[in-house]
Specification:
The protein has 189 residues and is of the alpha+beta class. It contains five helices and six strands. This is Toluene tolerance protein.
């Protein structure tokens, strides 16, 4: 996949370039007819731009260190399609949205933050902040400046972890992905 250059003023900002690759994929996925097609479009760019293991560790929380390495690897492998299907499902309600990326990232800890304004089909805007690590990989996404993707994951993973431990979470990721990808295509108007 060709990399899209950052706009003038952000030229050379690798954090902005990472977010641009992801928002380009989101815009392409918006044109797809169903969840499965959107997830296929998003899958590769998400693997390239997101630090999936870091996001999963944040979602699992302190229990991560107690999970055996082979189970961690299985969880990471199941998490990638789960996250793509999650975003593909959310995009179903975002038809006509556009993404305006601030051309300059800001330092945050030992990483960066990139501000994006999403304008929906009706003209309403929402801020979305992408948090990137030192390697310019996305580790969290904040909607409206306060709703953390990692926090949302932690809430969603809490019950499967409590009920079935790491294997319960693995089952949850796989079943949730299957369910999201099986959603029917919207009916033509």
């Amino acid at each position: 996949m060709a990399q899209t250059a950052a706009p003038a003023g952000g030229a050379g900002d690798p954090a902005v370039a990472t977010v641009r690759r992801m928002t380009d994929a989101l815009e392409a996925a918006l044109k797809a007819g169903d969840v499965r097609a959107r997830a296929e479009i998003l899958s590769g760019p998400m693997k390239e731009t997101f630090d999936l293991p870091a996001m999963l560790r944040l979602g699992v929380g302190t229990r991560w260190k107690d999970i055996p390495a082979e189970t961690q690897q299985a969880l990471i492998a199941a998490f990638a399609p789960y996250l793509a299907a999650t975003y593909a499902t959310r995009l179903g309600a975002a038809t006509g949205s556009t993404f305006a990326i601030d051309p300059k990232s800001e330092p945050r800890g030992n990483g960066r933050i990139v501000h994006v304004t999403v304008t929906d089909g009706g003209g309403d805007t929402s801020p979305v902040d992408y948090v990137l690590n030192a390697e310019n990989r996305i580790t969290d996404v904040y909607l409206q400046g306060t709703v953390s993707e990692a926090g949302t994951l932690r809430t969603g993973f809490s019950e499967p972890l409590q009920e079935g431990g790491p294997d319960g979470l693995l089952t949850h990721l796989r079943k949730s992905t299957e369910t999201m990808l099986a959603a029917p295509a919207p009916k033509a108007p």
